[in-house]
């Protein structure tokens, strides 16, 4: 089998100067293939140049033209009226859910949703919401019937106010929720007076792999959070989109949460640069993840029950714990993250070449074989 991964969109990776290396500069071994997350990407030289020359102003005063442009472009792409640039996807999720679910009311979502697993209880702690979850057997893809059952009303129970979906699904292995499923869930919610939030941290990846226009996804939801700091490679930032009234409300609450910007346009410029230059190249990350998976499937098919659809490879570690496997991988030059007792995750991104992903796949396959 060929180990060559066709690169459709060459990136300036090899020419990064000292101190801007693609792997951890202060890690134990600078030659590690670091697949822990696509948040590890560092801004390229060209992105840094765009940041340095950004027009800026005080965004609390509504005077940062670069932030205004990023918010407008993101809202347009998703078919919504307005956008709000925030430092993290956790904050855009917090604000998006807060707009839809009142204190003491309920949100339905997947038990492996980022909102539930990786946001440190913030939705309950800061906004007093309760949650009820469905299971999917680790795919991240629910059935409409499950959600329908959960929505059935009992006036003596907690009021369900919104459903949150995640696309692509992070802990589901970067799985893509079919747009037809999203349409059915959206209709079901509309019929029942239930609001809809999309955690679209990696909606870019779903869009690139399916060809479904972003606004077709966008119009199915009341609020959407989308990240520039994952595969798109910006150092910071996510945008929440919704209607103008909700975004105005969220803008004020963001201030209360300490998340307002002053001259944040230097960061927003990185996101705009990413939109123009790094969106199409996500196909390279998907090809690299598929090539990595092929190496693993050859040697340890049981480790990979759900082969990757996008850039995330979730591996079952069998008799060993995830922590043990991550440690063994590290000894052989590969960094993966532990996301469950017997689960590790490897994520391709613009800081890692296709060849290194193949090499990592070979190593992980050998570790997990037999
Ligand atoms: C990364 C991520 C977020 C946001 O994370 P931050 O670290 O707060 O930017 C939200 N949802 C999903 C699915 C993610 O993968």
Plain-language structure description:
The chain is an alpha/beta fold and 370 residues long. The chain is 39% helix and 15% strand. It is built from 14 helices and twelve strands. The longest helix is centred in the last third of the chain and has 18 residues, at 282-299. The structure holds pyridoxal-5'-phosphate. Pyridoxal-5'-phosphate (PLP) is lined by residues 88-90, 93, 114, 166, 170, 199, 201, 227, 229-230, 238.
Summary keywords:
370 residues, alpha/beta, 7-stranded mixed β-sheet, globular, binds pyridoxal-5'-phosphate
Contiguous low-pLDDT stretches (5 residues minimum) are 14-28
The first-to-last residue Cα distance is 21 Å
Q: Report the count of strand segments.
A: 12
The Rg value, from CA coordinates, equals 20 Å
Q: H/E element string?
A: EHHEHEHHEHEHEHHEEHHHEHEEEH
Mean pLDDT, nearest integer? 93
Helix content: 25-40%
Secondary structure category: alpha/beta
Main sheet: strands, sense, barrel: 7 strands, mixed
Note the quaternary state here: single chain
The hetero molecules present are: pyridoxal-5'-phosphate
Give the overall shape: globular
By DSSP (H or I, 4+ residues per run), the number of helices equals 14
The proportion of residues in beta strands is 15-25%
Q: In what order do the strands lie side by side in the largest sheet?
A: 2-8-7-6-5-3-4
């Amino acid at each position: 089998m060929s180990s060559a991964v066709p690169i459709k969109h060459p990136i300036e990776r090899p020419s990064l100067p000292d101190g801007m290396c693609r792997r951890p500069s202060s890690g134990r071994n600078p030659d590690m293939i670091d697949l822990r997350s696509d948040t590890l990407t560092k801004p390229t030289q060209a992105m840094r140049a765009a940041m340095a020359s950004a027009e800026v102003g005080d965004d609390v005063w509504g005077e940062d033209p670069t932030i205004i442009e990023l918010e407008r472009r993101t809202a347009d792409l998703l078919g919504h009226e307005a956008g709000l640039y925030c430092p993290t996807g956790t904050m855009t999720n917090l604000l998006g859910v807060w707009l839809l679910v009142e204190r003491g009311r309920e949100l339905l979502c997947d038990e492996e949703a980022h909102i539930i697993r990786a946001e440190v209880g913030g939705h309950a702690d800061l906004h007093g919401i309760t949650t009820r979850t469905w299971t999917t057997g680790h795919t991240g893809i629910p059935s409409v019937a499950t959600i329908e059952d959960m929505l059935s009303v009992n006036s003596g129970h907690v009021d369900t106010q919104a459903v949150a979906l995640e696309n692509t699904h992070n802990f589901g292995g970067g799985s893509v929720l079919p747009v037809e499923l999203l349409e059915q869930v959206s209709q079901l919610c509309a019929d029942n007076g239930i609001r809809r939030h999309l955690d679209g941290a990696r909606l870019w990846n779903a869009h690139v792999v399916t060809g479904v226009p972003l606004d077709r996804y966008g119009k199915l939801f009341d609020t959407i959070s989308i990240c520039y700091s994952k595969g798109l490679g910006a150092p910071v930032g996510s945008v929440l989109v919704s209607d103008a009234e909700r975004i105005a409300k969220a803008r004020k609450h963001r201030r209360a949460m300490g998340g307002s910007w002053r001259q944040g346009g230097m960061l927003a410029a990185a996101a705009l640069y990413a939109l123009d230059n790094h969106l199409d190249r996500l196909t390279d990350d998907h090809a690299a993840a598929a090539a990595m998976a092929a190496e693993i499937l050859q040697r340890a098919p049981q480790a990979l029950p759900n082969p990757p659809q996008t850039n995330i490879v979730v591996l079952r570690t069998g008799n060993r714990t995830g922590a043990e496997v991550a440690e063994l991988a590290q000894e052989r030059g590969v960094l993966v993250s532990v996301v469950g007792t017997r689960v590790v995750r490897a994520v391709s991104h613009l800081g890692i070449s296709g060849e290194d992903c193949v090499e990592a796949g070979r190593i992980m396959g050998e570790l997990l074989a037999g």
